[in-house]
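Session log. Operator J.P. requested a structure for one protein chain; no other inputs attached. Running the standard single-chain path with C-alpha cell output.
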Amino acid sequence: MEIITKIKMSSLPLISIIIPVYNTEKYLSKCLDSIINQTYKNLEIIIINDGSTDNSFTICGKYAMRDDRINLINKENKGVSSARNQGIDEAKGLYISFVDSDDWIELNTYEVLMNCVLNHNLDAVIFEYFINFENGKELFTSYSNLNGMISKTKAVEITISPVNRFSVSKLYTKEIISDIRYQEEIYYGEDTLFACQALNNADRIYYYATPLYHYLQTATSATRSNFNINKLTSIEAYSRLLELCEKKYPSISLIARAAYISIIINMIIEVLASFDFPNSKAILKKLTQKLRKNLTLQLLIWRIPLKDKFKFLLCYLNPQFYNFAKKIIASNGNE
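Structure written below.
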C-alpha cells in the first residue's frame, strides 16, 4: 500500500540527511542533485564541510542558496566520523540517513523507504546498493533470499558480512541512534560498528531488496587506499563487534569471529605488501599473535567456505607463504 501519495507532504515525517564533505568537488554536484530532487520532499539536508581544501565548500554554498532545506556547516578537518557526529547533533528529523559526498542515490529513495516505514512501523530499513566505478562499470550483489521484515540477529549478521556493511545503506529512527555516535578514534570499520550498534537498538527492521544507493569506488576510496597505520583501527572495530555478538547474538558469534579474523589477515597482507613501513616487523608479529590467539578449531570445522578455511589456516601457519601463494594465484587470474 502506497501511504505517501495519500498524505500531504508537509504532514509526513522529516528526514535528516547527513552529508560529510571533504575534497569531493568532482562528484559533489551529482550527489547533491540526487538529494534535492528527491520525490519525498520533507527533508533536512545537513552538509558538513570538513575543512575541504578544494572547491567543495563553494559548490555547497551555491546549493544552499538555491534550497532552503540545506543547513551548511563549515568546520575544521577532523575526519568523517566527527563530521557525521556533528550532523547527528544538528539533526531535527525523526529519521536519519547518511550519504557520502562522492556517492548518489535513486530519486525515489526516501519515498520508497518511508512507505516501508509507515506501512510497517519500522525502527530501521536496510536496503541494497550498487557499486559504481569511474569507468562506468556498475556491480550489484544481493541478498536475494531476503525481502521484508527480518530479526535483529539477521540484521546484525547482514551488516557484519561484506555484502551490506555500510551505514549509508540504512535508514534509522533518530531514537535508535540517540545514545551512539561514530567512534572518532577508529578510522576504518567505524561505519560497520555504528550500523550494528544502531540495529542493536532497533526492534522492527525491514530489508528492502532493491538497490537505491550508488557507492562510488574511486582510486582514493578509504577501503581501497594503500596501507597506513590508521587501518589497524579496523581490528578494534571488529573486536567490538565480536564482543557485541558474543554477548547479545551468540548464534552468529562465529560469523563475527570469522569477520574479525578476516580483518586481521587483511592487515597482515597489507603490512607484508608495505614492509618498508616503520615498525612493520613489530606490527606483523603482533598481528600474527592476534590471529593465532583467535583462530579456533571450532571456526575451522564450522561451515565457512573451504577457500576461507584454507586462507585462515595457511596464514596462521606462515603469513609470508600465504602472501606469496596469494600473489601466484592472482597472477594466474584465478582469484
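Operator note: Residues 268 and 285 are 9 Å apart (CA to CA).
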